[in-house]
Amino acid sequence: MTALTRICDQQDNQAYGKFGNLEVWPGKPYPLGASWSPEGVNFAVFSEHATRIDLCLFTESDPDTEAYRIKMMEQTDLVWHCYIPNLKPGWRYGFRAHGEWNPEQGMVFNPNKLLIDPYTKAIDGNIDWNPAVFAYPIEEQDENRYLIKDESDSAPFLTKGVIIDTSYDWEGVTRPELPMHETIIYEAHVKGLTQQHPDIPENLRGTYAGLAHPVIIEYLKNLGITAIELMPVHHFVQDDRLVNMGLRNYWGYNSLSFFAPHADYAASGHAGQQVREFKDMVKKFHKAGIEVILDVVYNHTAEGNHYGPMLSMKGLDNWSYYRLKSDDKQYYMDYTGTGNTVNMLHPRTLQLVMDSLRYWVVDMQVDGFRFDLASALARGLFEVGKLSTFLDTIHQDPIISQVKLIAEPWDVGPGGYQVGNFPVLWSEWNGKYRDNVRSFWRGDAVGVGELAYRLSGSSDLYELSGRKPSASVNFVTAHDGFTLRDLWSYNEKHNEANGEGNRDGDNNNHSWNCGVEGPTEDKEINTLRAKMQRNMLSTLFLSQGVPMLTMGDEYGRTQNGNNNAYCQDNEISWFNWEWTAEQRTLHSFTKALIQLRKENPIFHRRRFFNGRKMEDSALGDILWVNASGHEMTNSDWSDPLTRSLGMILNGEAMVEFDERGRQIKDDIFLLVMNAWKEGVNFTLPGVRDFTHWEQLIDTNTGTIPVGSEQPADTEIILAPRSLSLFRLKNQKSNLTDFGKRRVNIVDQVRRLWELIQE
Predict the structure, then answer these.
(1) Which of 99, 79, 32 is nearest to 318 (CA)?
(2) What is the predicted pLDDT for the residue at 617?
(3) 84: closest CA among 163, 168, 158, 167?
(4) Which of 244, 472, 478, 718, CA to CA, is 20 to 30 A from 662?
(5) Rounded to an integer, what distance in angstroms lies between the CA atom of residue 512 and that of residue 484?
(6) Residue 339 neighbours by CB distance under 10 Å
(7) What is the reported pLDDT for 614?
């Protein structure tokens, strides 16, 4: 055991110099955090309202026992700082903040509580949920117990920051920098994807090293993924409530540090090795041409509300780091549903978030971010605003503005649903896409008017603000909600395993069990469920925008009806690598879909469709047709009972260019969809003598390519609840000697109408 050396007591007479075998210098206020060099470590921490900050050091061999306590004598620009020469990597550290204890006014300084540095690059250990980690006597029954100061020491029970050497050899490997419109995102969980893979060594399963294993990288490449979006990897807390229930925080939306990678995902150790292991993972993905996007949670922290623990920012400066109610500062503004909201209105808190983002881009080399509950970050005093300080700061930042930025454009506060309202540079999780596509395929009386917008890139949401189709991150499922298989297997959520009486999770799922709730041996129902999954996947990958595939949906992963598996760190949430024949078939279908999308630029345009004839061409770039092969009428668009739609995509009319300025052209495709429970007679548009349609996809069968061919002006039966994709094949009679079309597809369709009208 190490005896505590209270250097702080000696500093009243001697501020700096030698104190036994440790030396203390004034240090510098920047950079914030613990910055190591071969000469020593500079410590700097912000607190505007503290009257004193102590630095506490712990040895690597005995991290639970405080070895040194040092008073940080210098405060520059509200930053407390000191320098310890010759201190080596591996030491653990934390802070203690002195100041006013007045919880009714939001002041909760308590030097008995060790505090984690908000800028620490690595964290060792897990929290022991001893009552001492709370600033008040938590075991008291009085509802006002949070007003009473608890004087027990939390250090033996709290995780600590680790001093690390941040140097790393990237071996010249650089980011893939794939354009957003060519991106295919795979939302995944570090542990969930790797925990059950039989070819990954057991000691690497559930870790960054396991995720970077060749079998995982090859799997993603083979599937066609270009970017993996990792659920939270910022170090997060295992909530005491879940621990007491025998559950775990699996998703990780409970950040404790905005800089440190989650230690439990490291196979190599927690004394800073997790940082190197994470960098190794990123480097291997980049070598394979796959980008790494992080799901980041800056809107709240694990410290909760006034009843929550004191772990870091709450104890350092509650007023500055969190949004308190202006008329009653003992309580927090809760726009996140977690008890607190990070105060992005304060310049130092904003700096914390920006420094974190910059660190993950520059030092960790990630390729972008998905911002959890981004509306909470963009709030002004009350409302969500395009010109919020957070958004404005990101836009002018020369580093962060150049990576992929994806907003989850909502929070739980008033006016928090902001789909379509984020500014240029931002893409968004398009919740309207998810809801409308689900409703259409469920057969709801929603018509096809909104569906047309969603298929063509959601221009109604993004075009007027100067954004492109890639602003829409399209998804039909995500980690939050039903899996794709469960979407068509359950009418109701089944979250009993979460221990909340099935009260948690969303009740509005736009799902349908196809006739029976949950698993069934009924072959007809299982066939329908498989087809509905193919319908959703086909819609996703044939829509303009950026598709996001949720881990396991490519083979039909189930969570047994749990639509809020945040606490299920077990087989309910993990990827199952042992597939049935049906699951292998769905995987092959998904892979073929992605390949089809990647090979045909008409499905991932950079610009929105014009919808009419181009100025320099007689060709239109998109045309909507009804079941009779005619152009959609106003009554077709407005009828809520319209459940079929045809879309002609004209690749010859594309005004797109590659990186060398060469114009991009593509084939002409016809996409037809029928969400009705009965078959629909659909007339293939065009002029019979000149036009044949080759069928590539038929979700009724699940084979790609189908390989059949039909002449235009032929009536086909579009199967109940199915989708088909056709590609135009020109007959020799429609080609000149130079290989040009005599009659283009749009004119063919219009000639057909003229014949019918005559």
Answers:
(1) 99
(2) 45
(3) 163
(4) 472
(5) 11
(6) 18
(7) 44
CB 85 within 8 A of CB 79: no
Residue 278, SS3 per DSSP? helix
- Tokens 């996809």 sit at which residue? 697
Handedness of CA 216, 218, 221, 222 (dihedral sign): negative
* The pair of three-digit structure tokens given for residue 586, joined into one six-digit string: 């769905």
Question: What is the structure's pLDDT at 426?
Answer: 97
The tokens for 718 are 């579009």
Q: Which two tokens stand for residue 572?
A: 């309910």
Amino acid identity, position 738: F
Which residues have C-beta within 8 Å of that of residue 163, sequence separation ≥ 6?
A: 34, 36, 41, 87, 88, 89, 90, 91, 92, 93, 272
pTM of the model as a whole? 0.95
**For the chain, how are helix, strand and coil distributed in percent, rounded to 5?**
25, 20, 50
Q: Quote the CA–CA distance of 359 and 397 in Å, as a whole number.
A: 13
Tokens of 349: 């808190």
Domains of the chain, with CATH numbers?
A: 7-163 (2.60.40.10), 180-430+444-474+520-550+577-602 (3.20.20.80), 609-757 (2.60.40.1180)
CA distance 599 to 696: 13
Cα(242)–Cα(11) distance, integer angstroms: 43
Residue 292 three-state SS: strand
CA-closest candidate to residue 631, choices 651, 609, 647:
647
Could you identify the residue written with the tokens 């970017």? 227
The first and second tokens of residue 479, run together, are 């980690």
Q: What pLDDT is stored for residue 148 in this prediction?
A: 97
Q: How many CA atoms lie within 13 A of 747 on its CB side?
A: 9
Burial of 86: CB neighbours in 10 Å, binned 0-12, 13-18, 19+: exposed
Nearest-5° Cα angle at 357, 356 to 362: 100
Q: How far apart are CA 11 and CA 53, in angstroms?
A: 13
* Cβ contact 336:373 at 8 Å: yes
CA–CA distances in Å: residue 42 to residues 27, 35, 88: 6, 5, 12
Please give the C-alpha separations between residue 215 and each of 183, 212, 440, in angstroms, as whole numbers.
21, 8, 37
**Residue type at 11 in one-letter notation:** Q
Residue whose structure tokens are 């790609």: 704
Measured at the CA of 52, the angle between CA 47 and CA 54, to 5 degrees, comes to: 95
Question: How far is Cα 156 from Cα 255, in angstroms, rounded to an integer?
Answer: 21
DSSP 8-state code for residue 684: P
Instruction: Say how far apart CA 393 and CA 188 lie, in whole Å.
Output: 29
Residues 6+ apart with CB under 8 A from 521: none
Parallel, antiparallel or unpaired: strands 79-85 and 74-76? antiparallel
Tokens (6 digits) for 468: 């492109």
DSSP, residue by residue, 358-403? HHHHHTS---EEEETTHHHHTB-SSSB-TT-HHHHHHHH-TTGGGS
- The span from the CA of 65 to the CA of 3, in Å, is 8
Decide if 551 contacts 575 (C-beta within 8 A). Answer: yes
Q: How many CB atoms lie within 10 A of CB 480?
A: 16
The closest of 9, 44, 38 to 25, measured between CA atoms, is: 44
Token digits for 581? Answer: 């024949």
Which residues are part of the catalytic machinery?
372, 408
